[in-house]
Amino acid sequence: MPNLGSKSGANGGGSAASYDVVIVGAGFAGLYMLHKMRQLGFSARVFEAGDGVGGTWFWNRYPGARVDIQSLEYSYQFDEDLQQQWEWSERYAPQGELLDYANHVADRFKLWPDIQLNTRVTSAHFDEAADLWRVRTDQGDAVSATNVIMATGCLSSTNTPNFEGLSSFKGRTFHTGRWPKEPVDFTGRRVGIIGTGSSAIQSIPVIAAEAAHLTVFQRTPNYSVPAHNGPIPEEVVRKVKANYADFRAANNNTALGADWDYRADTALEHTPEERTAEYERRWAMGVLSFYGSYADLLTDPEANYTAAEFIRGKIRQIVKDPVVAEKLCPTTALGCKRICVDTGYYDTYNRPNVTLVDVNAAPIVAVTPTGLRTADAAYDFDDLIFATGFDAMTGTLMRMDIRGARGVSLKDEWAEGPKTYLGLCVAGFPNLFIIAGPGSPSVLSNMLPSIEQHVNWISQTVDHLRKQGLKRIEAKAQAQEEWVTHVNETAAPTILPTCNSWYLGANIPGKPRVFMPYLGFAPYVAKCDEVAAKGYEGFVLSAPAHAS
Ligand code: NA7
Questions:
Q1: Residue among 67, 154, 174, 199 to mutate when testing ligand 1 (max atoms within 8 A of CB)
Q2: pTM higher than 0.90 for the full model?
Q3: HSE-CB of 143 using CA atoms within 13 angstroms
């Protein structure tokens, strides 16, 4: 008996049912995928490891967590009533509000009966004789499905560096990507935080305001721009909602799929004074609008340098101690890692209770019972926070035992880096779809429109198979090879592959160094549409193998 309407999701454990679709993950991708499948009349089951829906916004509850794309854009567009009725309290919604939004969507579209929480998929094996996927979970489910859709997120497997003595620490430890549900009080405590990526940059100002002392261990400084967050002016909301479809369409028609006021001219055709005026305008606009500053920002290192130097100038202005300011100035190209967005990050280093430690100069050698030791000093804490990121884009898929035709494992197929066709499918793995997979714009775009585009494409494809009396779809190896080459060739002439980013897998020791996301949201959407229009060019579509 399904658990109708309950927020605790469907009853689970030990099921042996059969579905048209199994969806792994109940973040924004999984929720919309389920809704679409049900609209089309397919039977679907969602397995979610967490005890609630919301994915990224379920797990990343660290202080200061919020989205870095304006909420009017980082939201679903598939339902006009939803986008008209939902009201965001701030330009950049905090984690809690995004989680409320995910729950609201699950309620509104009555998704709960098909979502099984507290259930991690452990394996998915393609049974060639039956033309079905056999999916197993850690709760004893052993279900079968015609299609398996991985809605597992790009940043869902946390990375905790394997420091010597890791488990010896006697105080409290946290990872920003697995933050507890209960509020954590840092009042009067000595806190250490490792990492200066987006999660650290958002949480450091909040924690510093509470803790007795905060020590930040920085390996690589990052570029951060001010969010200028606050309530959304009523007139902005009214204007967007009056023509929401046009607003979405205009943003979807850009390289990165977001409203960043892209300029078509180049930085180097302007005088230094003109460039500075433009960068000041971007700094005042805040958020990721720097990406739109000049057309050559990501392609010409000299142009990139002008914007990078502008931000370094801002850091030197804000941070009073010149030695600390210099440590905080990135030397990498601007945007080779995702630009961070903050509220008072650099200014936090003017506080007397904050210390910055450069662990590039003197690396962390061990965690100790009372703190940690670097190559040249020891530090004591009550609490230690790992803001050390994720095994991005492939980590969650590689941790599952996924086997396609002829028992080939995805781990083996991707041993030298992920290979997909359109970031959606993998040759040798029929009817397996990945939402926002490696080789799709995903993290180089506004994730919500990217997710919706994938869900729409997958739904249309599965529906097409049904209408044509077909069952199986599989990417051709050659189409996949050509796509992987194209993804790399698109990134190669840009500054994107020039630093040790998680885009390249460079943050995880031993991970193959391959540029994973695809640069170019609008051309990507056009390509997916063209593939479908040409009868699924690059795929083999076939009838059930066991059809009489
Ligand atoms: P990130 O951006 O991957 O940041 C992780 C940080 O942790 C980064 O500063 C790393 O330094 C640092 N790190 C990782 N391993 C170590 C070790 N072994 N020693 C010292 N420092 C280390 O993760 P976030 O969670 O902040 O953000 C992820 C994305 O979420 C972000 O890009 C936005 O899209 C939202 P490194 O730079 O590797 O030298």
A1: 199
A2: yes
A3: 29
